[in-house]
Amino acid sequence: MRKLISLEIKKFKLFSYLKGVGIANLVIMGLLCLIYFAEKSEGTIAYGSYEMAFAAFGSIIRPTFIIFAAVLISRLIIDEYKSNSITLMFMYPINRKKIIVSKLIIVASFTFLTIFLSNLLIGSVFYLVDSYLHFVPKELTAEVLKDGLLSMTLEAIASAGMALIPLYFGMRKKSVPTTIVSAIILVSLTSSSTGGVNLFAFIAIPISLAVIGCLIAYFSFRNIEKVDVN
Amino acid sequence: MSYIIKTNQLTKTYKGKEVVSNVNMKVKKGEIYGFLGPNGAGKTTIMKMLTNLVKPTSGEIEIFGEKLTNTSYEVLKRMGSIIEYPVFYDRLTARENLELHCEYMGYYDKKAIDAALDLVKLKNIEDKSVKDFSLGMKQRLGIARSIITKPELLILDEPINGLDPVGIKELRELFHMLCREYGITMLISSHILGEMEQIADTIGVISDGKLIKEVSMDEIHEQNKEYIELAVDDVKKAFYVLDEILHLTNFKVVDASRFRIYDTGASQSEISKTLILNGVMIEEINKKNHSLEDYFLTLINGGGISA
């Protein structure tokens, strides 16, 4: 399985996506600065506490990388079907389920890692900047940090599962636009906040969406050995 | 006789329509089997079933003496194939594509890639991604990929599509070489008769999803020998003259004044000269040669569709 994953990475030159991840992080940081200055000009404080700040980071990072994952699904799975190269893959003496699972593992772990590491990176940069400029009124306590880390990890895991949901819509007509649009709809439904409350705040919702994502992946390819590949 | 491929009442139905019906084909070890049939006859569908991409509606397939099932992955290791048209990872170079192929096949002979590229005569392709290849080059690369692991069975769907005449000749020689020297069994499909005639040992004619004839090339040549047909005034005298002077013995009488000579020992002009010099009057002399094309067109038309 590790071999298959490394071959997939080689085949699609997936390390070139790291550049995209880096750019996304820079854009997110820019956006966070913008929010800070916009709020300041209105006389309010954007990041009243570290708790609020962490929540804000998460709500920008998550959607970004769930959509990024949809791009990856398009490349790894939808495109293989569209360009017929999946017939090539399925003529290799390799269990078809393993081929698909290795692709899904790449998507899920990519989502988890990018969300987790981006949160860490942006959080640390934020903390560093704040330690010089002191724009957050409340200090960062160990308690807040622990809670923040925990919820961030949970969210990253949930997002990794959720990221597989667009697969269902994309596979129906083997369409890349459908995959990406469904990811955008998915994140705008789950990450939009109304009155400061967003769906992600109740941990049950992201967890159940993650479970749905995994089920979708399972049911999409359960019969992979029995169906015709055209 | 051991068969590499054997199908038993193989049938495939798409949306209630039978595209392949009750095909019983047998491919012997070490032969080149030519799959001949008009477009849409079901050649590709059968090949897809043989490579496990498409599952039969009913019937069975045996490859290397083992029944093909949904999870027959091991047999795929012993096969090389191009189905429909060669598919590559377009953004990679030819070499990268071949390297990936070897990795997936579990074949680790570094020299094999160069050897395969040499065999199909693909040169000056380094640093060029496959999307910039012409159809002919892709076809060659596809063949290189299918033979790189030295499989026991090659399944090639329309391998000569998109090649120029020189390329076709080179490939024909390559196929013969692979078959004779490496003992690779080949299943090649085409709708081009002349090509099949020169490549195949056995021909399976398929039309409208049915295998209407499976016949060896030798047999076809036997049935379609060329002959000289003569109409003379005295058949007995003619026989005598030909036997005594030209030592021809293989005759067949058609009617009172007509007969055919199947011997190839004498030319048409030699025969007519000898007969006339010996007082046999020739009313008509014709060299006849049944073309393979006629043979197959009758077969296919007899199968119920118009070509």
From TrEMBL, chain A:
Signal sequence bounds: none
Membrane-crossing residue ranges in chain numbering: 21-38, 53-78, 99-129, 149-169, 176-193, 199-221
Keyword Chaperone assigned: no
Keyword Repeat in annotation: no
Domain of life assignment: Bacteria
Cited Pfam families: ABC2_membrane_4
Keywords: Membrane, Transmembrane, Transmembrane helix
Name assigned to this protein: ABC transporter permease
Species of origin: Neobacillus novalis
TrEMBL record, chain B:
The keyword Calcium is assigned to this record: no
InterPro entries: AAA+_ATPase, ABC_transporter-like_ATP-bd, ABC_transporter-like_CS, P-loop_NTPase
Pfam families membership: ABC_tran
Molecular function terms, GO-annotated: ATP binding; ATP hydrolysis activity
Keywords noted in UniProt: ATP-binding, Nucleotide-binding, Transport
Keyword presence, Transmembrane: no
ABC transporter domain sequence ranges: 5-233
SUPFAM superfamilies: P-loop containing nucleoside triphosphate hydrolases
Domain of life of the source: Bacteria
Recorded family membership: Belongs to the ABC transporter superfamily.
Name used for this protein in its record: ABC transporter ATP-binding protein
Species assigned in the record: Neobacillus novalis
